[in-house]
Amino acid sequence: MNLIGKKILLGITGGIAAYKACELLRILQKRHAEVRVVMTEDSTKFVGQTTFAALSNFPVYIKNSGDSKSFSHIDYPRWSDIYIVAPCSATSLARFASGTGEEPVSLCFLAMQGEKWVVPAMNSVMYNSPAVQRNLETLRSWGVKVMEPAIGYLACGEEGAGKFPEPEDIADELEFASVNTNKTLLITIGRTQEAIDPVRYISNHSSGKTGEAIVKEFLRNGWRVVAVCGPMEAKLPKQCEKIEAKDAESMNKVVLKMQSQAQVIVHCAAVADYRPKQIAPQKIKNSKAIQKLGLEETPNILKNTITNKKKGQKIVAFALETENALENAKNKFKNCGMDILIVNTAKGFGKDFVEYGFLTKNNSSVNLADGSKEELAIQLFKEAND
Ligand SMILES: Cc1cc2nc3c(=O)[nH]c(=O)nc-3n(C[C@H](O)[C@H](O)[C@H](O)COP(=O)(O)O)c2cc1C
Questions:
Q1: In whole angstroms, what is the distance from residue 12 CA to residue 47 CA?
Q2: pTM over the 0.85 mark
Q3: Does a structural domain hold residue 269?
Q4: 197 and 151: one domain?
Q5: For the residues 289-311, what does the mean pLDDT come to?
Q6: pLDDT of residue 68
Q7: Where are the beta strands (DSSP E) in 190-294?
Q8: 190: Cβ contacts below 8 Å, ≥ 6 apart
């Protein structure tokens, strides 16, 4: 789900993890959502309402916060697109499951018509208790989204399930978890490493950041994403399916195996064009032997997918150029048969921006301009859906 401009009502209940809800609020704001807060009375013993009012820049809805004529319990949920209760205590879960609206968080739960999420957080024995599990099951059966708690060291000093997930992970789950199309993106990301001997390899500087931006853009638009990943610095959200492929040979195999499942294939990985003809079984000891290293071409993954292209499938490739970028890209586009070619320069290696231009079947004239990798991803999503 795209969080830009989304109105999120954040419910806070009484648990140690209430302090982590401050960070969650900030992260949601950073992802361009608007957030308002409703709190149980007990939760204000953990973090004061002043903090949440200041962070959300809006009055917090708590018991007795309005006059007797105010309809906050209707107005707050009606304002919001999503209601997420994080952390959600065992007591609040029980209220939600039994339909009790005795205080603001549960009243909003009853009055909310849109999407509802709960993030249970508690001691693992409490979490695994039949009552809590039954209540969670009831909520799931009503279509409420229940976020799995993390497993780990709990505030009470015990280990187990019930831990409040990292706020970034909660925001990722909201933003990237809902696959609501039957479309799949298959994307290669990162670089390949072509072994010379057990300790050396041929590779390049690709960081995987452009691929990361593309993965996120397709996920937030409800696509299933399968990412075939070489080594890289970028971190992909948990919500995409990751398959590791260290060298061109294995990347080629995985991509061809998965090709038939995809509506769009994006060749974003910087695959080495050449590899040593033979991998030395032991570390090569002298530089003369290195100089004699014979190279051969790696499998051409782009060409192979174009050969196997199924009806309606779109194939997107990148052309990284260090000179005559536009000229070279136009030739590649004319000769190779991909649907979209994104020409880019080495300026963007490892950075958040990139110098790029799009060549498509409808528009084969191209200019280079600087933009963020997110902007590139948004444009690619639009073009791929055309
Ligand atoms: C120090 C402390 C920590 C607590 N942590 C949790 C917790 O993590 N999860 C939980 O379900 N209850 C926890 N409780 C119990 C709740 O605060 C209690 O059930 C309260 O009634 C919850 O009410 P509420 O849902 O209206 O906020 C804790 C209580 C105390 C005193």
A1: 9
A2: yes
A3: yes
A4: no
A5: 92
A6: 67
A7: 194-195, 201-202, 224-229, 241-244, 264-267, 274-276
A8: 206, 207, 208, 211, 229, 230, 231, 232, 234, 269, 270
Has 156 been annotated as catalytic? yes
Contact (CB, 8 A) for 77 and 108: yes
Q: How many helices (H) and strands (E) does the chain have?
A: 14, 19
Residue from 89, 109, 136 whose mutation best tests the ligand 1 pocket (most atoms within 8 A of CB)? 89
Q: Please indicate, yes or no, if residue 89 is contained in any of the structural domains.
A: yes
**Token code pair at residue 222:** 């409800």
Q: Which token pair is 280?
A: 């030395």
Return d(Cα 275, Cα 192) in angstroms, integer: 10
Are 208 and 78 found together in one domain?
no
Task: Report percent pLDDT > 90 for the chain.
Answer: 81
Q: Tell me which residue range forms the domain holding 31.
A: 7-176
DSSP secondary structure code for residue 310 in this structure: P
191 and 225 co-located in one domain = yes
Shared-domain flag, residues 294 and 335: yes
Q: pLDDT digits over 329-384, tens only?
A: 999 999 999 999 999 988 877 788 899 999 998 877 788 899 999 999 999 999 99
The answer to whether the CB of 112 is under 6 A from ligand 1 is: no
Number of domains in the chain: 2
Q: Relative to the CA of 43, which ligand 1 atom is closest?
A: 27
Q: Which residues on adjacent β-strands are paired with residue 297?
A: 274
Does residue 157 sit in the same domain as residue 188? no
